[in-house]
Amino acid sequence: MARFFAAILVVLVAHGVPAAVAGFRSPESLVRNVYxxxxxxxxxxxxxxxxxxxxxxxxxxxxLQAVWVAQRRExxxxxxxxxTWKLGAVTISILRRQFDKTYVAVAFDNHGRPVTLNFIxxxxxDGWLIADVESPHDSLQAFLAQYRN
Length: 149
Fold this sequence. Notes:
It is a single chain. By secondary structure, this protein is an alpha+beta fold. It has one domain: Roll (Nuclear Transport Factor 2, Chain: A). It has helices at residues 2-14, 27-35, 53-59, 62-69, 140-146, and strands at 91-98, 101-110, 113-124, 127-134. Helix 3 packs antiparallel against helix 4. It is globular.
């Protein structure tokens, strides 16, 4: 079955079906897609959110795109608050909708340790993107600035 879907994907790509450039249809979809990269299945979806320009354009607001792809040595992955991960169920809840911004709370266990994050998402012409993420101790923008080379 997996080979069938892979073959369909190859055919679609070969015939020029355009890929989404940026953004997601809903805040929940954006967050689900972030954590899809933290599974323990295929290697493409088990190494955390990639730090490449295509991923930056798809997931992040312009204010974060350049710092996301910059080379750096982070002590841990901000989205899981650890250098390693084995995540439990990820719960997503909308905290507040305010004009073009939505605040989304995310909670999960990583190796049995509870983790909570607040995503600040903006709705632009291409869909929902990450403007920032806050942990109880830090924000993604501050974290990336601190570990920039």
